[in-house]
Structure formats: C-alpha cells, structure tokens
Prior knowledge:
The chain is α+β, with helices and mostly antiparallel strands. It folds into 2 domains: 2-70, 2,3-Dihydroxybiphenyl 1,2-Dioxygenase, domain 1 (Roll), CATH 3.10.180.10; 79-144, Roll (2,3-Dihydroxybiphenyl 1,2-Dioxygenase, domain 1), CATH 3.10.180.10. Helices cover 20% and strands 33% of the residues. It contains 3 helices and 10 strands. The strands form 3 sheets. It has a 4-stranded mixed beta sheet, sandwiched between helices. It has a 4-stranded mixed beta sheet with strand order 7-10-9-8, with no helix packed on it. Strands 5-6 form a two-stranded antiparallel sheet. A hairpin with a 5-residue loop joins strand 2 (21-29) and strand 3. The longest helix has 11 residues, at 7-17. This is Lactoylglutathione lyase.
Amino acid sequence: MHRIREPAVSLSFYTEALGLTLLDSATLAMDTESQFTMFFLAYEGNIPIDEEERRMWAMSYPGAINLQYIWSGDVAHHEYDDEMALPTGYSHIGIFATDVYEFCDSLTKFNVTFIKKPNEGVVLGNAFILDPDGYWIEIMNPYKMSSA
C-alpha cells in the first residue's frame, strides 16, 4: 500500500502512464475523524459489475496495488537519503514489461521522472521511475531475470 496525496494525479499516472486498471475504490472510516479511500489497481479487464462482488474481488485480486488517500491530509511520508539517493523506510514496487526500453520510451509522453533509465548503471535493461508521490517503481523484463 502506498499513501498518496492527490488521488486524481496518482490515478492518472497509474492508469494512463503505467496502463493499470482501476479495479475498485472503497471509502472507509475507523472513526469520525479518520476517513480514507483505498484504490485497487491491477493489469486486469474482467471486473465484476456488482459493487459488493467487485469490492471483495478487488481486495483479494493477486498482484493488485493499493493506493490509500487519507482525507485529513496527514500522510506519513517515506524519506530518502540524499547522499545515496536510496529510499529508506519503504521499499518499492516492481512491474514487468517484455520490452523495458520501449515501455520507458512510452513513459516520456507522461513526463515521468526516471531515477535510472534501462541503458544506465551497472544493471542494464531495468529502470526505476518515480510516481507522483515520490515512490520508486522498478521496471524489469521477466524473461531476462536470472536466478540466484
């Protein structure tokens, strides 16, 4: 789960730039002061029409990404170590693309910020980008990964 600041900006990034489908959203409250909305996204197209069935399906869908918007605006943010430019406190998500170079080229029209392009660094062929809230996303080719 990633906490987000602006649902419209984040949803646009994940659905338009990365091609995920919004499976469902749910607005919940632990009490009258703490309302939040969860958005479930995945690479999927067969979404149930019935609202209750869709909600349960989205919450149990393998590989779904959960973005959470806290209505109060109180978002605990991850920190980055400036010296090493590595995230601390949170890990990152990864997505697969059979052609990482082509996929990264398609992201340029969305003005995506790259931490590492596929032709840079020690490990060639994978990339790291930032989502609108500064979370790292790794893009890798599932057919070019080696076992340890």
